[in-house]
């Protein structure tokens, strides 16, 4: 055997040129996805637009637009199931709103009585509240409009959860919110893992011919599920400790005080500005106070990030397509706000007297602008497929 070193053995089916070509391709594919923050801003803008109208046709159009974008751009990951869960929650909210309108009455006077429930007499201190009585069509329509607005807002939030990966969103948070973001992401991903463990253990018991339902099945499945959750928590804690989680840098006291003042003042300014925008009397000071509060909060978060020294592996780039995604949602919110101020009757159909809602042309065309991400944003691998089911043991 000679003393010369042998060249490395080539692996079958691999070449240096191929290895160099695959790595940039994977990096390009990873960075080609839309920024998760852009999806959240797009969804929140649609939710803001939903709060500006009670027209059921416009609200249904908002739901249809969000559903189409989710159907074309959600990944087959289990986290994309959140859209269906939020849709069911929206239906439950709408049903509860109608139930309260029937059981507790409504302040909307009506002349079209549908049916009458037995009314329960209440003491004098409960004036303005009734149990039972006449149920009018005007009251039900008003409750349906109000509940549909809240349901649309919930569906828009569900679209953000289905389109934006929690882990990718966590990497994009500023350093001041990183620890809080980790806690939120861990809390949000605990329930899906727990449900997956229950499904896996129940499938294993069915394959072995053992009961998986009832109290006995629940008790025999609950112990392995809790054991798996404990092991996952210990593994997560060890991984976080090995990566230096919780390590903070030394910053001067004046920087800490300035950070706290800017963050607290900015949040108070955001609350005051939002309140001013939602009320008719605060329209003059709402927007300036909101902008000043956002600027102060961002400055506080920037200073607070100095205490959390960390690096990002392959950070998501905020490119032109992310701006287009956000711009389409913001345009819908702004145009519907302007339309609500100019033509309130079209965006808020009356219920006394009862009139059939009409579809206003320009607000409907404005909502269709939210479809731009379906054609401009890149699709993740496997987009449009159903979420991956839980694998059953063989």
Q: Any overview of this molecule?
A:
- This protein has 394 residues and is mainly alpha-helical.
- It has two domains: 35-172 and 315-394, no CATH class; 250-307.
- The chain is built from 14 helices and two strands.
- It has a two-stranded antiparallel ribbon with strand order 1-2.
- Helix 2 packs parallel to helix 11 (320-342), helix 3 (56-73) runs parallel beside helix 5 and helix 9 (253-278) packs antiparallel against helix 10 (286-304).
- The longest helix is centred in the middle third of the chain and has 30 residues, at 178-207.
Summarize the structure.
By secondary structure, this protein is mainly α. It has helices at 16-31, 36-50, 56-73, 82-104, 137-163, 166-171, 178-207, 214-242, 253-278, 286-304, 320-342, 344-347, 361-367, 372-376; strands at residues 113-120, 131-136.
From the helix content, strand content and strand pairing, which structural class follows?
mainly alpha
- Work out the radius of gyration: 27 Å
Please provide the count of β strands. Answer: 2
How would the global form be characterised? globular
Strand order of the largest sheet: 1-2
**Residue-averaged pLDDT:** 76
- The ordered string of helix (H) and strand (E) elements is HHHHEEHHHHHHHHHH
Counted by DSSP, the helix tally is 14
Question: Could you list some keywords that capture this structure?
Answer:
two-stranded antiparallel sheet, disordered C terminus, single chain, 14 helices
Secondary structure: elements and pairs:
Layout: H1 16-31, H2 36-50, H3 56-73, H4 82-104, E1 113-120, E2 131-136, H5 137-163, H6 166-171, H7 178-207, H8 214-242, H9 253-278, H10 286-304, H11 320-342, H12 344-347, H13 361-367, H14 372-376
Antiparallel strand pairs: 1-2
